[in-house]
Amino acid sequence: METSATAAQAAAVERTGGCLCGRIRYRVTGDPRVHYCHCDMCRRATGSAFAVLAWVPCASLSWLDEEPASRRSSPIARRGFCRDCGSPLTLSYDAARDEIALHIGSFDDPAELPPQYNYGSSQRLGWVCCGLDLPHHDTEERW
């Protein structure tokens, strides 16, 4: 059973990150929900075989200097990025305005945030081997 002191300590965890050039920096409190995303939208947005996303409540995210630029990446989502270096930083869904995903590679210490499950599993490329032992969830979105 979690005590209120334990809950307060977990909420006090602070992580930082930012883009490749350092122009955009952020701070997040609490523990993100981390997963691999294999959907074709994330593949195209990252230029990789999959994305690794860390979902946090919007209220726990602070932009330290400036906020990322953003663009609509599909009829249901927006993506944030650094206008100077192009680093992908965020994903947010219109239907979930209270949370935002940060790309795990933008964290200063991503090693402490292992993925907990797979999303978009039906679109996983056959040669991707990471996370095979984790739970799988599908998505209906395709782009």
Please explain how this structure is put together.
The structure is a single chain. The chain has helices at 4-11, 40-46; strands at 14-18, 25-29, 33-37, 51-57, 61-63, 69-74, 77-81, 88-93, 99-103, 117-119, 136-137. The protein has 143 residues and is mostly beta strands. The model has no long low-confidence stretch (mean pLDDT 88).
* Portion in helices: 10-25%
Strand residue percentage:
35-45%
The tally of helices reads 2
Compressed to H and E, one letter per element, the order equals HEEEHEEEEEEEE
Oligomer: single chain
* Main β sheet profile: 8 strands, mixed
Cross-sheet strand order for the largest sheet = 6-7-8-9-4-3-10-11
How many beta-strand runs?
11
Radius of gyration: 15 Å
The class by helix and strand makeup works out as mainly beta
Mean pLDDT value: 88
Cα distance spanning the termini: 43 Å
List low-confidence stretches.
none
Shape: globular
Write the layout of secondary structure elements.
Blueprint: H1 4-11, E1 14-18, E2 25-29, E3 33-37, H2 40-46, E4 51-57, E5 61-63, E6 69-74, E7 77-81, E8 88-93, E9 99-103, E10 117-119, E11 136-137
Parallel strand pairs: 3-10, 10-11
Antiparallel strand pairs: 1-2, 2-5, 3-4, 4-9, 6-7, 7-8, 8-9
Features:
10% helix; 143 residues; 8-stranded mixed β-sheet; 3-stranded antiparallel β-sheet; mainly beta; 36% strand; globular
What's this, in brief?
The chain is 10% helix and 36% strand.
